[in-house]
Amino acid sequence: MTAEATIPLTINNGALTIAATAGETLFQAFSRSRVFLPTACGGRGRCGLCRVRITAGCPEATETDRKHLDQEALQSGFRLACQTTVTGPMDIAIPEAYYTASDYRVKVTKITPLTRDITMVRCQALEPRQIHVEAGAWMFFHCPPYEGCPEGVERPFSIASDTRDKRNLEFIIRRNPVGICTKWIFEKMQVGDEIVLNGPHGDFRLHDTPREALFIAGGSGLSAIRSILLEMKNKKSPKKARLFFGAATCRDLYLLDELRDLEKNLPDFRLFPAVNAVSPGDDWDGETGLITAVLAKHIGDCSEAEAYLCGSPAMVNACIDVLTAHGMPGSQIYFDKFA
Asked: Taken in order 20, 21, 26, 28, is the CA torsion positive or negative?
């Protein structure tokens, strides 16, 4: 690459400058410079996670941008990095963690099945021996080469563990029927295996406000929220909080005893587990129905609350519709879609 062929991308008011090539995407330029944007599709425009805010030189939104970003975000300069072609200099704002993340060599120390398709993986840091962790963040999980995936692959998984423990990390991972990384995790990975993690990444964090927090999780979406709740317990947070935890059936719910213990240890926290349907023989007296219906039943006017959502894109989008219909501004809704 010659000096004449490069285009500068200025990150966070000059904290970092990346040399891009005309015609490549922001995602490609960032990847080459070891700036790790969130992605579940490898930059193919399917997941909508690689959003960045372009404060100068912002191009017109693409159809894919408009599919994944609301009008408020588009007007504020947010674009998908994988859809944004570099044609000239840009100023870009991203979370600092995207370019300050580190690689960590870890050993798998425990694998705990939680449901038929969700497991908890516990890893211990080998080098360096302590990991910088943040509640709500995620780590790239580097799956090694294996039969069917000769080059290996990396995928993001949210941290589920107590952030006081800098040596050990836990992840709640759901098997993707067509996922090459989760195939290795569920079929090949063994206790004692060594892998590489990179992070922490992401900007899904609990905000320091007096507003009530409405947590909404589906499936493995409990992962990041569990970490946040554990941190709230450790800090003896007085923040009012409710967790709406949805699953298809009773056997798809997990960690309920732990969550009910949190109800006793957090001064103003309530748990609302819900299942779509109850099967004959299930011992269930909790909420039944879609999590959107359970949410609508209990929240009332929520214009003064804030929401944190983790789960499938369909679940997150449906719950956002319920929240906004009950008065919550979009600026008070934070989410992590598990594409």
From this structure: negative
In whole angstroms, how far apart are CA 40 and each of 143, 163, 180, 211, 312? 14, 24, 12, 31, 12
Domains of the chain plus CATH, in order, are: 3-98 (3.10.20.30), 101-201 (2.40.30.10), 213-337 (3.40.50.80)
Any bridge partners for residue 118, and if so which? Answer: 174
Asked whether the beta carbons of 157 and 173 are under 8 A apart, the reply is yes
Q: Are 64 and 80 in contact (CB under 8 A)?
A: yes
Tokens of 118: 């969700």
By C-alpha distance, which of 299, 225, 309 is closest to 262? 225
- Which neighbouring-strand residues pair with 327? none
Q: What is the pTM of this model?
A: 0.80
In the prediction, which pLDDT does 2 show? 44
Reading the block at residue 320, the tokens are: 């956002």
Beta-strand relationship, 90-93 and 6-11: parallel
**Cα dist. 243→177, 205, 310 in Å?**
27, 15, 11
Distances (CA, A) of 229 to 121, 164, 261: 19, 13, 11
Q: Which single residue is written with the structure tokens 């040596």?
A: 167
Which two structure tokens, joined as six digits, stand for 276? Answer: 């779509």
For the chain of 339 residues, list the mean pLDDT of each consecutive stretch of 10.
72 94 94 82 84 96 94 94 96 87 94 98 96 91 90 91 96 94 95 94 89 96 97 94 97 97 93 94 92 96 96 92 96 81
Structure tokens at 26: 């922001």
